[in-house]
Amino acid sequence: MDRRTYTFVVASAAFLFFYLSLRTLVVPPQPPPNVPPADEIAQPADESAEGEKLAADLPSGDKPDQPEDAEDDAGDSTTQTTEWYTLGSMNPADEHQLLIYFRNRGAAIERIELTAREEDGSFAYRRVDTRSGYLGYFAGTASERIDGLHVNVIGPGSPATTATTADGQTGIQVGDVIIAVAGAPVQSEQEIAEALRETKPGDSVVVEVVRGENADAAAAPLLFDVTLTEHPLDLIRLAKDGGDDQIVGNLSRLSSLMTLAQVGRKGISTGKRALDSLPLPENQTWTANVTSGDNGSQSIRFETNLGAKAMQKLGGQPVRMVRSFTIEPSSYIVDMDMEVINLGDTPQQLAYRLEGPNGLTDEGWWYSTKISPNFSGAAARDVVYRTAADGHELISGMTLLKETRKTPEEPNYGLFAADSDAAARQLSYIGVDAQYFAVSYIPADGEALLNQFDRASAMIVADEAKIKANKERAINVSFFLNSSPASIAPGESIRQSLRMFAGPKEPELLNQYGIGDFVYYGWFSFFSSILSGLLHVLQSIVQNYGIAIVLLTVIVRGLMFPLSRNAAVNAQRMQELAPEMKKIAEKYKDDMEGRLKAQQALQKRVGFNPLAGCLPMFLQLPIFMGLYRALSVDIDLRQKPLFSPNGWASNLAAPDQLLYWGDWMPEFFSGRGTGWLGPYLNILPLFVVVLFITQQKLFMPPATDEQTAMTQKVMTFMTLFMGLFFFRVPAGLCIYFIASSLWGIGERLLVKKTLPKGKHFDLELDSDGDVIDAVATSKSSRAGSGKPKLTLAEKLMAQVNPQEPEQPVERPSKRKRPPGNKKR
Fold first, then answer.
1. Strand partners, 324
2. pLDDT in tens, 719-756
């Protein structure tokens, strides 16, 4: 969350609390063809549909440009083609919770999909910014032979693997060219998504495929019938695959890249990502080998050699880098091993650099409110880490962007270095944190620390010059770690093992791996934890989070009923004293000290404490904020529908999104991040505002003077203005406010029947006009007496003008009552 958004959220909470307090006091109880990828692919400046030309990855068989000095002259051959590999599966029978896509050019992660399933077979975590059907991920590039999309990879268990033709052929294959989907010609992944925009999970579509290495435009296509599924959450993805939430400026870069960080005394220069004579890590080609274990585990091993020519410029000798990734079924953990082997004939001082993940999902960055322990707030993606010296720390993406713009020559934000204290280098974990998901490096099983690194820095993965001010929250971020330099004898190596957690921010799951601090409730965590637990219990009973939120609201408001009633009684007594307080104010118009003294004396005599009405509000604040944050942070509300999983309010952690108006509303109103309201018309916030205004109309008495009238007008304006604050609030929170308001209306109507009768105070004054005593009499007894009683102001005037006889003041036989007050 950037500083402005953080300030907005804090101001909203303070505004709401002030508003509720004021109500208590005022209201009575109430990509393009054939373009090889750049080192890092940046979004173009033109954001229009026609102007979005996102660079494609190399198709299989193309040879990337690689410096001659990086050629393999150490004896082992390396492939120069770009190939893709997978670990995990989308097939429920395989019980994998991850499907990871790798690329050998860079030997790193291109994409991670979460494939865990619910009992009914649906995805436990699906993509919430699209309701269309899903065909699969192909790492597709424009075909050179015909107009179509060249398929570079197929995810096991994805809908494309189960596609069938009329003659019995099964599954789209790597090397196929998809020429049309649902009757629409396609040449990119984006065009496939557009062709499926109006479909739903479960729909069947026809995919036209040309198969065969020598196939051309004259070849008869295969017609595959494909049953679409939900879109699994792509936890890590390239920026160009971000869909509607992508922003111009973020770069498409592989995650968990590896390269040499130091050879002898030469290290990577400031602001660079590789040693001078070596290719960027994403341009280095590796060989790959995939294996499977008996327990369902899967591994991929990458190797590459840095030859004599490249290493000689660095004063070193050939080395081999080896790395591997391993996953097991029913786990969000990826085991990672890194190794650097000295292939020379003399010892070498070597270190390696391991980059972190990037491209985490930024779903809903334009509406989500991420709670941060820092005053500067949080972005949609932030770098988090823990050391013995600093504890748990969050470095906002906004902070990283600001620092990069301040010192572009040094874009890295240092976390610790080789000369830092030992405690500062005792790293427990480091990762990238999003609203409901995180990817983090953690120690290997059985180890307590990531203890072989002597430098860590956070960084943005973006072109800062292209990031617009109103889209800064969606900045792409990552980090890197440098291993401690070590002297490696010929034939020996340095090796490091660690684990990567890639999954949801479920408190129990995170606590298993020592990263429970990723879930942050703020100052009211005690109440948030209790209320969140109670919400889950209620949901387990009623099987609907919308109903559970209503029940939770009833329970909380019911427990606070005594406080609400006391506030109501206090408000009534304040109204009874209001005429006398006003008269005192008129008498001591120019004497502030005298006015306060007289008013305090009156309040003391009648036993009225003006703070008693505020006390209940202060006692309710921790509970209110705790519930607010519990509903804001709880991942269990994500993708949980109020009614239908593919209809209105299908995600209680997001606005209800009744109607998409981004196509015809002005950018000022409907832009993602640029508009006041966002791209959807949301109906629940309107109900909230209507109920607040209804409470005012039902319980606010008619204005008795200009000051009261002005106060009431301000209250109405504030209520309407709150609609802007609430318009992008998650549907679950709106349901809470609606239920709370309805409860409040009913509570006020009930409480009013149990309040004591209104009283009038007969006052005894001294010669200075100060209150000596006050005797309370009911309004009915006062009205029944034969002689009208004098008000405090009248008695004060009699004390000031003793030469004039005290005259009774004529009063109308009928008194005007506020709406809703009945004569008793």
1. 301, 337
2. 777 777 778 888 998 999 899 889 888 887 877 776 66
* Cα atoms in the Cβ-side hemisphere of radius 13 Å centred on 268: 24
Closest-CA residue to 705 (of 819, 586, 574, 814): 586
Domain map (residue ranges) of the chain:
3-28+527-754, 759-800
Q: Give the separation between CA 531 and CA 534, rounded to whole angstroms.
A: 5
Low-confidence ranges of the chain (pLDDT < 50): 1-79, 778-787, 791-793, 795-824
| Owner of token pair 């001078």 | 276
Cβ neighbours for 422, distance < 8 A, ≥ 6 positions apart: none
Our CA angle for 324, 325, 329, nearest 5°, is: 150
Contact 728, 473 (CB under 8 A): no
Q: How far is CA 665 from CA 49, 172, 475, 672, 680, in A?
A: 16, 40, 25, 12, 10
Which DSSP string do the residues of 262-292 spell out, in sequence order? EETTEEPPTT-SS-TTS--GGG-B-EEEEEE
Of all helices (H) and strands (E), which one includes residue 303? Answer: strand 298-306
Is the full-model pTM beyond 0.90?
no
Instruction: Provide DSSP, 741-804.
Output: HHHHHHHHHHHHHHSPPPEEEEEEE-TTS-EEEEEEEEHHHHHHSSSPPPPHHHHHHHHH-TTS
Cβ proximity of 463 and 40 under 8 Å: no
Nearest to 783 by CA among 815, 806, 807: 815
Per DSSP, helices labelled H in 348-449 are 397-406
Rounded to the nearest 10°, the torsion over CA 43, 44, 46, 50 is -90
